[in-house]
Amino acid sequence: MARDERVQSAIDNWAPRFIANGIDYNDFQYVTTHVERWEDWCRAWSERGAFYERMGEQAEAAGNGVSIAYHYLHASMAYHFGKFLFVSSPDELREAHEHVVSTYKRALPHCDFPGERVEIPYENGASMYGILRRPSGTATVPVVIIVPGLDSVKEEMHNYGDDLLRRGMAVLALDGPGQGEMEFNFAMRYDYEVPVKYAVDYLENCQGIDPSRIGLMGVSLGGYYASRAASFEPRLRAVIENCGGYDIARHFSKRPFITRAAFVARSRSANEAEAMETLKNFNLSGVLKNITCPLLVIQGRLDRLVPAEDGERIAADTKSVSELWMFEDGNHVCNNIPFKHRPQQSDWMRTKLGA
User: Fold this and answer.
1) What is the pLDDT of residue 3?
2) 4, 9, 73, 289: which has the highest count of C-beta atoms within 10 A?
3) DSSP letter string over 221-270?
4) Within a 10 A sphere around the Cβ of 104, how many other Cβ atoms?
5) Residue 1: predicted pLDDT
């Protein structure tokens, strides 16, 4: 049987991301070798997640804290990459996502940098959820809000957070509208400065957090969100955007089918045409001039999802405050060359926030 083009698309476009964000290469090989139909994708990854979840439970029973974190983190990532674009089966997606949240929560107290799942007041009495982690020690520290993209979630941002925590910064990984825990009841929104405002409001009242040193970073669509938020939220001290896109609707038709389907689902649109209309508002033209804090623009020349010219446009519109790191050999989010930008971006943020 020929492999489903959706399965092949997921492998072709996101394999480096899986590895960079916590999937063991052997698990990636095992699952993708045995999946030919897209309908089996979430089930196969969930089975791998359940395998690690059982090992986590065995480690818990034995009181092996380091192994508890290891197994539950691997379980959470396996469940996540099963459901990340599986919008064709909402019930299956939701069940897998519940395991993403629950297994990560079980790992969190045992991680090198423990943390807590926090509830952040949002519009009309609703809540956003985040993962707040602090470096060791009791000093008041700067904090970086980490924003996921279209098909990522706060739990997937774990390795990004570790990089920042090792450099003395706290992190708040956030699920905003259309993302993670908010994807089921809230549509994605172009004016992401609104959820960021609520996150900053929350951080201003957190013990041990310096509210005068708040940074923001976003990857993929989260990069767009970060740029947009930086244009309207004056309390941000420094911002990193990685392959976020300038005009999201412009290249919609060229994206893989499973990505377009995710845009439809997470914008709560009826079809691609309606999603396209919604995405016309996801455009940074005319707003980037408002950014006054340092902005780091990261872009891969080989990005097949967000053209390199989009990163160049963002940098051009913000040239008085921005730096452009264009990687000629980088793919989307430069996940194929993490050693070239992940440590360095965290060093950049540490310098800007004075950590």
Assistant:
1) 84
2) 73
3) HHHHHHHHHHHH-TTEEEEEEES--SBTTTTGGGS-HHHHHHHHHHTT-S
4) 25
5) 54
Backbone angles phi, psi at 35, to 5 degrees: -110, 120
Using alpha carbons only, give the angle 224, 115, 207 rounded to the nearest 5 degrees: 90
Amino acid residing at 50 = A
**Per residue in 31-80, pLDDT tens?**
999 999 999 999 999 999 999 999 999 999 999 999 999 999 999 999 99
Nearest to 15 by CA among 1, 2, 31, 34: 31
Neighbours of 25 (CB within 10 A): 10
Decide: 46 and 82 in contact? Cβ < 8 Å: yes
Burial class (CB in 10 A: 0-12, 13-18, 19+), 101: buried
Whole-number pLDDT of residue 298: 98
- Say whether 116 sits in a helix, a strand or coil: strand
Decide: 148 and 179 in contact? Cβ < 8 Å. yes
Q: Between β-strands 295-300 and 236-242, what pairing exists: parallel, antiparallel or unpaired?
A: parallel
Q: Does the predicted TM-score (pTM) go above 0.70?
A: yes
- For Cα atoms 153, 5, 266, give the angle at the middle one, nearest 5 degrees: 30
- Which residue carries 């904090």 as its tokens? 143
Distance CA 91, CA 142 (A): 39
Taken in order 35, 72, 148, 352, the sign of the CA dihedral is: negative
pLDDT tens across 252-304, in order? 999 999 999 999 999 999 999 999 999 999 999 999 999 999 999 999 999 99
Q: Which tokens sit at 114?
A: 């423990």
Residues of the chain with pLDDT under 50: none
